[in-house]
TrEMBL record:
ABC transporter domain boundaries: 6-231
Pfam families: ABC_tran
Protein name: ABC transporter ATP-binding protein
Entry keyword set: ATP-binding, Nucleotide-binding, Transport
SMART domains according to UniProt: AAA (SM00382)
UniProt xrefs under PROSITE patterns: ABC_TRANSPORTER_2
Organism: Haloarcula salina
UniProt record similarity statement: Belongs to the ABC transporter superfamily.
Length: 249
């Protein structure tokens, strides 16, 4: 039997008194497009950081593509494409050079120009990244995540800083990667786009996974109508955070 792309059991993270993630049990199947949602401060980036070995858990276990993310980091990262929450480009290096560096690290053979064309940066291949706008940086980071045809893409807020063309591009890239057979796990506040591309969503609230399922599952579970959106589901499950001022920071 194939292992899930992502599996966690009791995964928890505390920062001093702050409980950032509380006993997360989650399974994401191979080939799934999974949206990870929640108000500001819910624990989404914390979860992603744990899965990518950018942080260590206080308790619990996880497997990523069948690897232990903390003890088999190199093997794991070679098969994962990562778009981090914030990516600082090297100002003096061109877009092409950024992709070559990732390609070398992953021992992949991708053509940097083809990847840059795919994210709409064909005209900026040899431009230093220090001259890039925020949206161009985000496109470059997306191209970097695609190097080596990863089995799993982990995208933290992939729509950040993008114009409507960029948003549509990310949506198309996610769909194309899923079509290729990759698993896509991403966090986002752009719920309209989430609704279009995700097979299932998980909603995190105050560090706890409050629900998970397809939009149809969640609509019927919450007794919302057939035309309820992901936004309606989100608001229903996290309403108290809006009242307390959380989620609107
Ligand atoms: N390095 C850290 N040190 C202390 N507290 C942290 C740290 N990282 C996150 N936290 C806290 O953990 C909680 C979860 O934060 P996290 O960044 O995971 O939320 P998020 O769901 O990604 O939010 P957003 O939508 O705003 O990006 C918050 O209360 C945050 O203040």
């Amino acid at each position: 039997m194939t292992t899930p792309a992502i599996e966690t059991e009791g995964l928890s993270k505390r920062y001093g008194e702050t409980v950032a993630l509380e006993r997360l049990d989650l399974s994401v199947s191979r080939g799934e497009v999974f949206g990870f949602l929640g108000p500001n401060g819910a624990g989404k980036s914390t979860t992603i950081n744990l899965l990518l070995n950018y942080a260590k858990p206080t308790e619990g276990t996880a497997s990523v593509l069948g690897y232990d993310p903390w003890n088999e980091v190199v093997e794991c990262h070679r098969r994962v494409g990562i778009l981090p929450d914030r990516y600082d480009t090297y100002d003096g290096l061109s877009a092409r050079r950024h992709l070559q560096l990732v390609r070398d690290t992953k021992r992949a053979t991708d053509d940097p120009e083809a990847l840059l064309e795919r994210v709409g940066l064909a005209d900026a291949v040899d431009q230093p990244a220090g001259e890039f706008s925020q949206g161009m940086e985000q496109r470059l980071a997306l191209a970097m995540s695609l190097v080596g045809e990863p089995d799993l893409l982990v995208l933290d807020e992939p729509f950040t800083g993008l114009d409507p063309h960029g948003v549509a591009l990310v949506r198309d890239v996610v769909a194309a990667e899923a079509e290729r057979g990759a698993t896509v796990f991403f966090s986002s506040h752009v719920l309209g786009q989430v609704q279009v591309v995700c097979d299932r969503v998980g909603i995190l609230h105050r560090g706890r996974l409050v629900d998970v399922g397809s939009l149809a599952d969640l609509r019927s579970k919450l007794d919302l109508g057939d035309d309820a959106t992901v936004e309606d589901v989100f608001v229903d499950l996290t309403a108290d955070s809006v009242r307390s001022g959380e989620g609107v920071r």
